[in-house]
Amino acid sequence: MRELQAKIIEEMGVRPTIDPQEEIRRRVGFLKDYVQATGTKGFVLGISGGLDSTLAGKLAQLAVDELKEEGTDARFVAVRLPYKVQHDEDDAQAALAFIQPSESVVYNVAPAVDGFENEFASAAGVEMSDFNKGNVKARARMIAQYAVAGEHNLLVIGTDHGAESVTGFFTKYGDGGADVLPLFGLNKRQNRQVLKELGAEERLYNKIPTADLLDENPGQTDEHELGLTYEQIDDYLEGREVPEEAAHAIERRYTMTRHKRTVPVSILDNWWR
Length: 273
Ligand SMILES: Nc1ncnc2c1ncn2[C@@H]1O[C@H](COP(=O)(O)OP(=O)(O)OC[C@H]2O[C@@H]([n+]3cccc(C(=O)O)c3)[C@H](O)[C@@H]2O)[C@@H](O)[C@H]1O
Ligand SMILES: Nc1ncnc2c1ncn2[C@@H]1O[C@H](COP(=O)(O)OP(=O)(O)OP(=O)(O)O)[C@@H](O)[C@H]1O
Ligand SMILES: [Mg+2]
Known about the structure:
Structural class: alpha/beta
Strand content: 5-15%
Shape: globular
CATH topology: Rossmann fold
Order of helices and strands: HHEHEHEHHEHHHHHH
Largest sheet: 4 strands, parallel
CATH class: Alpha Beta
Bound molecules: nicotinic acid adenine dinucleotide, adenosine-5'-triphosphate, magnesium ion
CATH superfamily: HUPs
Number of domains: 1
Helix content: 40-55%
Distance between the termini: 24 Å
């Protein structure tokens, strides 16, 4: 195995094979333990219709259901966070029907995002790019989730996992801004395996991953933007051999995005040297 590959696998905590039932128990147990240890009242998470939030949302609901049965008051607030009308709203509704959250809220991020966009144009004298606006959407979603968390003493769930973390494929302080990461240590195909084990319908666990952040290209696939397939990223994280070009692209992304996986750099740091 490549030397850097071994180091990355250790950092991402991905194992070559998993037992889906055991993963469900470990991760639900982790969520329950953390709520109890912190004295918080449960969780909040944006539900997009994509497989990561469907899985993390289901694990959160299972955790609060068990806590309630055991006599601890807890709830899971699922938040729909569309920008205007989401093109695949039907998948988001299917995800909510599967999760059966304690509560669900719809919070359209369009007024906030468009407000930023308009003010940016008059302040900076240039139009915000569609790419930059996509990151504003991701950060608006983070603000909405923290507003719900702050009001009800909840924790914000993040959906970061090995295959997104290694490539830095998230918005810094956007979807990267969260309190607990129940999917960390899994890669994409393992997320799919666990979601299938939980009894989700096929359209949910086989949903093609998209960040869905662009006005001009809604539903652009992650794989298209990354120039890598999840098969390649997952194989790499399981310690398998992948084409040299793919391994190099993953390692380049990993190195370029290290700043996203640390707290802000100060004068006392030197990890980037
Ligand atoms: N070396 C460095 N040290 C410290 N900070 C550094 C830095 N380089 C950039 N930065 C800072 O980081 C910023 C760039 O990072 P960021 O704002 O995240 O922006 P960036 O990484 O350019 O874009 C986010 C990427 O994540 C993807 N994404 C976002 C959200 C969800 C999903 C999904 O999978 O669903 C994917 C999105 O499609 C896009 O490709 C810079 O503007 C700068 O402020
Ligand atoms: N339209 C949306 N409504 C609600 N939450 C959203 C929306 N878009 C993104 N999010 C939140 O941001 C997170 C990051 O998006 P990301 O696309 O990585 O995950 P996903 O959509 O759940 O799964 P996938 O990566 O397979 O598309 C989501 O898990 C979700 O919590
Ligand atoms: Mg998505």
